[in-house]
Amino acid sequence: MISSILNYKEYIAYKASVLLRAKTKGTFLGNLWFIINPAFQILVYYFFTEVVFKASSFHGQSSFLIIVVGIFHYTFLSQLLGEAPSSIRSEESILMQMPIDPLVFVAAFFYRVIKESLPSFFVTIIFYAFLIKNIPTAIIFYPIVLLVFLIFCWSLAVIFSTLGVFYLDTAPIIQLLLKVLIFLCPVVYPLSILPEKVQIILSYNPLTALFSCFQWSLLGFPLPSTSSLLVNAIFILLTFILGNYLYARSRFEFTKVL
Amino acid sequence: MKKEVVISLKNVSLRFRLSYEKVWTYEHKLRELFRKWSGKSSIKYFEPLKGINLDIYRGDKVGIIGANGAGKSTLLKLIAGIYKPDGGTLHVKGSVSSLLSIGTGFSPELSGMDNIRLSAYMRKIKKNDIEKRLPDIVDFCELEDFLNVPIKYYSTGMISRLGFAISAAMKPDILLIDEIFSVGDLKFQKKSEKAMQSLLDNSYCQVIVSHDLQTVERVCNRAILVHQGSIISDGPPNKVIKDYYKLQGHTE
Fold this sequence. Notes:
heterodimer, A: mainly alpha, 13 helices, globular, B: alpha/beta, Rossmann fold, six-stranded mixed β-sheet, three-stranded antiparallel β-sheet, 8 helices, 9 strands
């Protein structure tokens, strides 16, 4: 699988670039839209949290900053999962005439979403730098948390891309889950505001653990318990293995179904 | 001297689930699981190819003929690696390029130039190589003025020319062709026929699916007749074509 991706790395990079370019081609502001959109979204959150609701602070950080940090990662996740079911299916015409490993299309799509999120990332960093009261020392672990998050996202993308070929219900089910997931994970709030029992239940969801780790490394919130981290690390590893297994088992059936 | 086998199929079979029985939704899947559990599964399969034994040697130009739905294109797609056999073994030695349909993998929102580069990268051609071949491709398709325009604005003829120009720039060891020998208007047809001839001359093995029996007789040194998913005749084109006529119930 890795060799397939490496063999097609130029295709993956080029496809991601041209698709992004095509998105804003012909618009007056061009690539600036990739900056304007997230910046505007953040300003809307500012208006609601700080001006309308005057939301309180948690662990010394403003609600607005918690939302800014959470929403950036969640937007990436939701865009990735939302589009994953069609990432192989939409390349049907190529698959039916060339013996290309379909995982290449998942990789191209994954890389495109990463590239598309980079301007949001920089906008988030700017807001973060202005709003953070005291930068936690755990920030040095942020790249590791981000890497684990990306590995988990990749595994989910492989699973949903594969399922999306066989089952058309995959896309609407994911859309439904994403609507709930934003509240089931500590994206816009710290886990500590929930009742203790609920916290324990939610802490065994890998996304809860990952979002709590983002809050720990970027905002200085408490780190999830060791047992929760361990269980979720195993879960993330199993998801990765399941994604690879599911894909390897069904990839040669794709052209028969499409 | 023993000839080198470049494509080998041993007792190959391929099985499809009938399209109207395919599981498209989780609800269907659950219903089918229940039927399977109660021993009343309604899934039906058909075998477009069964028990195929075929060795193709270096230097062979093989024409595959047969009636519509006989399994010719499916056999070509199997050799191309698009389908994996459900039974038997398939070995292909060398790089394969397939001309199965022209221009269908293009992204309509992207320009002609972007699609040329993408198609080339998809065929694992390196960046430097693409840049070297680009002037020839541009020159061949005669679409210089439109290469920066998204191909959704192209006519069907323009898309065919672009697709053919890209395919003609490849240098495969094994060439698989499904009915495509030329595209475009009369002038471009002549040009594309010439390019196709050069493509045929430069590859060491070709497998061609065609209903044009004259082309098969002219281009190929060997033909095979596929009928209901099996090879029923294999040999010199004139003999196989006679068998085909007999099968169809006509005389030449």
